[in-house]
Amino acid sequence: MTHQNRSQWDAGRFLETLTYFEVIPFLSCLKRLFTNRAKNKTETQGGSQIMGVILVAGATGGVGKRVVRRLIEHDYQVRALVRDAERAREILGEKVELFEADITLPDTLTPQLMNNVVAVVCCTGVRVQPVEGDTPDRAKYYQGIKFYMPEVVDSPEIVDYQGIKNLVQAAARSLPQAASTVLFDFKHPTDQLKETWGAVDDVVMGGVSESSMRLIEQAALFSGNVSTANSGGFASVRTRNFDSPLNLTEYEGIELRVKGDGQRYKFILRSEAKWDGISYCYSFDTEKDQWIDVRVPFEALIPVFRAKTLPDAPAFDSSHVYALQLMLSKFEYDGGLNPNFAPGAFALQVESIKAYGGATKPQFIMISSAGVTRPGRPGINLEEEPPAVRMNNQLGGILTWKLRGEDAVRESGVPYTIIRPCALTEEPGGKGLVFEQGDNIRGKVSREDIAELCLQVLEQPKACNVTFEVKEADSFNSFHNWDSLFSSLKLESGDK
Ligand SMILES: NC(=O)c1ccc[n+]([C@@H]2O[C@H](COP(=O)([O-])OP(=O)(O)OC[C@H]3O[C@@H](n4cnc5c(N)ncnc54)[C@H](OP(=O)(O)O)[C@@H]3O)[C@@H](O)[C@H]2O)c1
Question: Where is the NAD(P)-binding domain (predicted)?
């Protein structure tokens, strides 16, 4: 090919591509200065930020505020369901997203409340206060009803049963499939997401193809023009490297929801931070104008370096996923031609990118109470029971309705954990914990430790679909073997 008949190669676009992906660090720094794209904005892109939101209900309460604090400390993205945002801001600080709603008012539990939510921690409870009125700092209140004559402020039936039922049903309508994790949700994009994908076209090798990824209604559109001029023939979009790589070891692969134009595309993963490292590829055919789900099993990925397959390369390391890429290429592998390719305009819509095949983890965690099955149970000696059991009737059947609330959770179809704490205290956490089932234990436990327990449960497949009581151990033990504690639990049977 002579110089004259070569198509006009665009050096500016080439440089732009390398700069966007920070292959030329110095230029990237300058660009960052000029566009004022703060570093910390991308820092969480590969972490929990794109993994979804944890919704905490009852976030202004004694347990709820501690759950929020701990989740934030562990980099979760948290949304707090609160009744009074102004008061909540004072209690919870600036780092949490607030959403005003009331679990007893189903109309307030909107799809916006559940947007991007992957799990709910429900710490709500009907207000119990001293009969002589609440104290401003609620110090007395937090000591528990052992220390004052209590009364309920609202109806336990409406808050602890109907309210919980409303919330878990709203969650059931919109929580994602339990065994998958959404990596990119283009239906509900965040600002960060818009900065993550950039074009890598054959301009990097002298070609003139051109493409982009942009958000359209309910999806992202990867589109452009592939030209085979100048020995080119591919267009692609790639994420910037995640600052902390994704650990997807517990999943089997990636699932894409796409609508294409009938051509064969490639999905590419990278487990190295290098710009020009091994790419692990998977080819998939699209159906013209049809939404389809494409599964990309990690074990089916083909290692490729500069268009050549590498039969001896290590299997894809899903513990360090640095970048994702979508490509339309004239070529398959080792010079073979893509049988479903035509040069010119192309379009592929992407609705979501998920990791699939993971273990099911709890998606609705309810803080209930020890004693819920004891009122009216034959053989119960009320003298020995905690005040809530003794005073269940005076307190509007508080425990009876909590049990009904638990039933609504168990029947919801959402993977759940029901935690039944013994008397809650304001003492420091870090105590040894005792788990029991059957609702027979008495004791106390710090709200700090219940908050930590919620955090553990969120990541614990063994906590799925179990109900258990918890109290602190007699002996001090700051080391928890969480795995063996959860292993001791039986899946739901007749004993509630
Ligand atoms: N106290 C104990 O010894 C003990 C023992 C075992 C179990 N429990 C249970 O453990 C759970 C957590 O206890 P806690 O001490 O953290 O309770 P808490 O301090 O009374 O907190 C209750 C939370 O629920 C919220 N709430 C009440 N009604 C609501 C509604 N209709 N819509 C939305 N939010 C609502 C409250 O919001 P506001 O701030 O707006 O009022 C508050 O944030 C409760 O279910 C409690 O019954 C308590």
Answer: 58-129, 353-461
Q: With contact defined as beta carbons under 8 Å apart, do 96 and 79 qualify?
A: yes
Q: Which of 366, 359, 47 is nearest to 178 (CA)?
A: 359
Q: Atom of ligand 1 at shortest distance to CA of 423?
A: 3
Residue 232 scores a pLDDT above 70? yes
| 246 DSSP 8-state letter | B
CATH level 2 (architecture), domain 48-179+360-487: 3-Layer(aba) Sandwich (3.40)
Give the separation between CA 170 and CA 483, rounded to whole angstroms.
31
DSSP 108-142: GS-HHHHTTEEEEEE-----EEETT---TT-HHHH
Residue type, 160: D
CA 10 to ligand 1 centroid distance, Å: 62
Nearest C-alpha to atom 32 of ligand 1 is from which residue? Answer: 102
Q: What angle do CA 117, 121, 126 make, to 5 degrees?
A: 125
* Domain boundaries 11-19+184-356, CATH class: mainly beta
Ligand 1 centroid, distance to 82 Cα (angstroms): 11
Q: Using alpha carbons, list the distances in angstroms from residue 118 to 53, 77, 114, 147, 486.
A: 6, 10, 8, 38, 21
Per-residue pLDDT reduced to its tens digit, 261-306: 999 999 999 999 988 899 999 999 999 999 999 999 999 999 999 8
DSSP collapsed to 3 states, 28-47: HHHHHHHHCCCHHHHHCCCC
393 Cα: distance to centroid of ligand 1 (angstroms)? 19
Pocket of ligand 1 (CB under 6 A): 58, 60-64, 83-84, 102-104, 123-125, 127, 144, 159, 163, 367, 369, 421, 423-424
Q: What CA–CA distance (Å, rounded) separates 24 from 263?
A: 33
Q: For the whole model, what pTM was predicted?
A: 0.77
Reported as a single tens digit per residue, the pLDDT across 47-73 is 333 468 999 999 999 999 999 999 999
What does the domain layout of the chain look like in residue ranges?
A: 11-19+184-356, 48-179+360-487
